[in-house]
Amino acid sequence: MTKKFFTLLGVIFMLLTSTAQAALAIQDNRATADYWVGKNKSGEAVFVATQDLDMLNLQIRQKSANTIVDLPKYPEKVYTQWLANKIIGAMMHGNFNDKEVPKLFKNGAALTEFSFTHAKQNCGLDELPKVCEIRYALTIDRTDMRHLPEAEGWFMSKDDTHYDQLQATVIDPSEPVIVLIDSKDKQFVFVESRTYAGWVKPSALAFTDRTTWLKYVDPQNYLTVIASRKTIPRGKAFYQMGGKVLLRAADLQKDGSWAIYMPAVDANGTIIEQGLNIPNDNGVVKGALACSENNLIRQAFRFLGEDYGWGGIGKNVDCSAFVQDVYRSVGIELPRDADKQEKAMSRSISLKNMSRQQRLDILRKSKPGALLFTPSHVMMYLGTDEAGEPLVIHAASSYYTFDNGQTAKHYVRKVLVSDLHFMSRDKVEMIDRLTSVGSF
To answer: What is the pLDDT of residue 13?
Structure first.
């Protein structure tokens, strides 16, 4: 009886989720890459040449101080206050810097003061060394990064499994990181990657020397993963779109494969560079894709229908990871979070205090691939359909409806195409919540 009851609950949940998705998602031909590529006749033109990408990424990095790290220039030694600021910054990203215990749930029960205090103490802020010599490492698989050195999830409700508030982001395999310090219990290390700082499991890292590490920081010959997800090789390392794979040889092998390096570890956690060969399929490209509007559209649609994953949970993307992955597949390195992405755009048009008509006028002049920002979300602009309606593709979590005085929250948790008329908790349509349109 109990089993049947929970099965029924599961069916009801799937039906409600499906209904919510159908209500928000456009599911006709406007939800295809071909539709938008066909409308954008000039969309194959390159808007950032390959030789100009380094300069553009430098400009993005300069606009993203303390967000995108220039890893080769990282100091070899750091001091107490520097280290403390980095660790506290990771806490602040997760809103864990307050003394008050957050109203979250761990293992289905309310988070206790003991658990909260223990996780913060595990950072070792009271025992930081005066001088810390940095270590160099590479990730060997897709790696969770945490705001605190705690493996168990802290969720918004006792039944929630989707929104772990400790989850900061994920890092692809072969990603270079700076290792700063161990947690007190030695179960985590605090690292800084190109776009984020936080706690990771040391078992996910291959420690190496600076010379080897630099090959991965600034690879001269590499593949970019252009599939939404790809496993290399034989189920051992999972990549998201935009991940880089270091090449052993600049050209295809005689059998048509690519010769690559994959970081692995020996018994001491020291790097072993495995030499492997992988097929030259449509999941990878040498270098990066041409930086064109239509390539942005094609790449975005490779995620269509995939699940939403808060901070990368479940090998999926949230809204900012989605646009970050799409853009890095054409060689543009965006920051990780939506608010930081908004500040990093080369061209930005503020929509604050504008009327609905003024917003529509600006959107209809915007280029496909532009990013639309709200205070809590980012979406990729596709263009207008035959009716002149602006449409977007995005990793959507939820939306609200308000009927007969009743407020209902609908979870979608999918990458989908929609218009801008869905509402958030404040009863304001998304088009009227937009703060800016950004592009390059």
So the answer is: 41
